[in-house]
Amino acid sequence: MAKAEFDVPELHEYVDVPELVEGTMAHLSPYVAKPDHNTPLGFPGELVDDWHDKVLEKLDDLRSRYRSLQVYLDACVKCGACTDKCHYYLSTKDPKNMPVGRQDLLRKVYRRYNTFAGKYFPWLVGAKDLTRETLDEWYSYYHQCSQCRRCSVFCPYGIDTAEISMAAREILDSVGYGQKYCNEIIAKVHEKGNNLGLPGPAILDTLEGLEEDVFDETGVAVKYPLDVKGAEILLVTPSADFFAEPHVDGLIGYGKVFHEAGVSWTMSTTASEAGNFGMFIGSYENMRRVALRIRQAALELGVKRIVFGECGHAWRVAYAFLNTLAGPFDFLDPRYPVPQHICEYTYDLIQQGKLRFDKSANDDMTLTFHDSCNVARATRMGDKPGGQFDIPRAVIKAVCNNYVDMDHETIGERTFCCGGGGGLLTDDLMEIRVKGALPRMTALQNVIKDEGVTHMAAICAICKSQFTKVLPYYGMEMDQIVSVHQLVSNAIILTGQNSDEEDADSDDEADGEA
Amino acid sequence: MSTVYALLFIVATAVLVIGLATKIAQYARTPAPLKIPTTPAPVTQTGVVMRMFREVVFFESLFKSTKWTWIFGWLFHMALFVVLLRHLRYFMDPVWLPIELIQPFGVYAGFAMLAGLGGLLIRRIFVDRVRYISAPSDYLWLLLLIIIGISGLMMKFVAHTDIVMVKQFFTGLMGFSIGTLPIDFTLLVHLALVALLMILFPFSKLLHAPGIFFSPTRNQVDNPREKRHLADWAKAMEE
Known about the structure:
The complex is a heterodimer.
Chain A: H1 35-38, H2 51-65, H3 67-75, H4 87-92, H5 99-114, H6 116-120, H7 122-125, H8 132-141, H9 150-154, H10 161-174, H11 180-192, H12 200-218, E1 233-236, H13 247-261, E2 265-266, H14 284-301, E3 305-308, H15 312-326, E4 340-341, H16 342-351, E5 367-369, H17 373-378, H18 387-399, H19 430-436, H20 438-451, E6 455-458, H21 461-470, E7 481-483, H22 484-491, H23 505-512
Parallel strand pairs in A: 1-2, 1-3, 3-4, 5-6, 6-7
Helix pairs in contact in A: 2-3, 2-10, 5-10, 13-22, 14-15, 16-18, 18-22
Chain B: H1 2-29, H2 45-58, H3 60-65, H4 67-87, H5 97-126, H6 128-133, H7 136-157, H8 163-174, H9 185-200, H10 208-211, H11 216-219, H12 232-237
Helix pairs in contact in B: 1-9, 4-5, 5-7, 7-9
């Protein structure tokens, strides 16, 4: 059990809906961005003096640009359908972590300054003045939302709290009151090409290391190419895949799949990051700038297809927004969707019978699958609705003998967030991250007890990092979270591996790319 | 008194129509720059129409959420719909046959509507989470609708009003000629509150009615890879 400066919730068989307790999370706010983090993103360095007017101006601006925001501020009838749906409310009891409670922090101000009732009868409709305290409250609670959209599934009008929290964060950024974690990372992407600020040579070094490891293990010269012009496929993957466990095992898996498919592929230094934190802060401009790197890399490298690695919010930006932000992609091969998910790619090969597996290689594990929120509720895979649930499971079942789902109320479109999404994956928010994981941890513990599950697979870099940190708080092991393509990697039979190690070609290829 | 009510209903109708038209125009004018349907979502326009139909007629998402709120909320809305249809007979002569046929159901619907509203009010008072998010206006809306319902039923079962006269008043008003209303307390309360509801509609949470049709998480086709979606203000960035 990891040490904590807060109470880690106990796991029971069910997560009961708690009675609310006001203010339990009012103390928690992430570190505020410094001028160095803000200015590269086009935001004021620190809180501006005329923040009051600027906030209201920005709210007007966003309402005129985002139909979602305008409609969602108006349409809520306070029916309460969402009140027990947020993992952060269920675990903290703080009513401002109920989706409607969170939305109301902004809605109260909207009503006060922009509606007839709120201007003249504020007490009647719960309208509130915009004060410095309001700003702090927004800063605190809009950074306790992982933008997972679970509430939007259940709202009779489809009100999506993520839209509200993105708008609120953009308003805060516009007056110089942004979050350090997100803004620092976006600045790194603009400058270096990835969230971690890894320079090109470091990535190259890592990839060469991977090639050696795979060669040592299998005797097959699987390539992990970087910046190779004229390759067929550009792989864009979260930068965590370059070094962190279990992410990197997934990257090894992608490479093996491409190798067996016999396709040429490459990664890119300038687009060495699938993630796009511009979405978390609601900034279309920053999100677009980050997305354009990928278009640029695809053009420079002359690839025909773009494939994304395992990352949840990245897949949302890729699947749902990339065409909008950085399209049209008419220079790519029109026979394939732009972009494709690595699970779609692997699944197609499996369907065509082009991959061979030794499923017993994963027999030491019994798997379950965590549907990542952005993949589940904001994207699709394949051409049928729900493919985002079926395809990753089909891939897992093709490479593993032992698989069981968690409680159906906690997977698919109803999946619970890992607790660390939406720009919350930072140590200064550890308390809400650990607590927010409660519903998922409960469902996981139940299948561990009842079904003998040993590992949980995921296709999101944030989920993987979050679980690695949080599992120990709940008495589980950090390595119980695995990548889907790590399982593929374990089971895939590479042409010429093992006994065929003396294969004449392999030595040449191993020395090739560098 | 009749003149006051005549003017009241002219004003109420004008406010309702102009107010709603203004809000609908605002929603329609405001771009949705990104594809944000809550998935799994339909991949065709027909599918979206079906999804919206299920949402508006069956309250599909609410059904997924909480069965009690769904039962009360759905009961109230559907009953209100039947009650409104029943009231159409006061505005047309001769009365359209389907409206004639639903008359008996309209009365049952009046009770169903009150049952639904009562359930919603009890829930709002006794469920701590719903109580927390409720402003005074949230209770007042329920009370307003409940009093409208009770006063309406009272005219059917307790103190009849001269309904022929009421009909003459409203059909006349539709041609902008002011007739006379029976001076019955129940009727005057009923009508005054209905007019109040009409006036407040475009400034209140009742905007959920037009709002749902403009909700991007529900009305967008899930086809971002196939078809490029671009708002005008976003397009301007590319130039």
